[in-house]
From TrEMBL:
PROSITE patterns: NUDIX, NUDIX_BOX. It comes from Paenibacillus rigui. This is ADP-ribose pyrophosphatase. Keywords: Hydrolase. Residues 45-180 form the Nudix hydrolase domain. Its cofactor is Mg(2+).
Length: 186
């Protein structure tokens, strides 16, 4: 068996210059040594990580519509949010589900984790599927304005075609749901 050198592309950090520290993200510029010995700079967004929930209720997925300022438009997305410092992703997923949709789950399992934009950010997103939902209480953040609705798989696919759903976490969740309906497993 051939051994693969996974570090052959490693970039060694020579220095880090903090640029911005916000409530959610920070920005830094790293000077790195490239594998060929040259140096380059990398602009890096640091993020605490996030969770997202494919919440299934009566063969429909719960989604929220909210305005996304970077896109200058409203988007339909699955419930999601950032991790608080030291928070377990499973606990965060349950919290975000209830805060944004008003539902609690009887069962929840992890589908996968993925990096959202590894070319410039370290944000990792943990995607869960929640089922056996019961009504709880919506608890939106003071600066959060959204509406919750439910979609069939066909409606979600149509929203993707119309770009009403256009974020990676929701598209991933829709395709995971489609695979589940075909195979019986996530």
């Amino acid at each position: 068996m051939t051994h693969i050198n996974r570090n052959k592309f490693e970039e060694i950090t020579l220095s880090t210059q903090p640029v911005f520290q916000g409530r959610v993200i920070s920005l830094q510029v790293d000077t790195v040594r490239l594998p060929n010995g040259e140096t380059a700079t990398r602009e890096i967004v640091k993020h605490p990580g996030a969770v997202a929930v494919l919440a299934l209720l009566n063969d429909r997925m719960l989604v929220v519509e909210q305005y996304r300022k970077p896109l200058e438009k409203s988007q339909v997305e699955i419930p999601a949010g950032k991790l608080d410092a030291g928070e377990d992703p499973l606990d965060a997923a349950k919290r975000e589900l209830e805060e944004e949709t008003g539902y609690r789950c009887g069962s929840i399992e992890k589908i996968c984790s993925f990096y959202t934009s590894p070319g410039f950010a370290d944000e990792i997103l943990h995607l869960y599927v929640a089922q056996d939902l019961t009504k709880g209480t919506v608890k939106l953040d003071e600066d959060e304005f959204l509406e919750c609705e439910s979609l069939s798989l066909e409606e979600a696919q149509q929203y993707i075609r119309e770009q009403r759903i256009s974020d990676a976490k929701t598209i991933t969740a829709v395709y995971a749901w489609q695979a589940y309906k075909l195979t019986g497993s996530f």
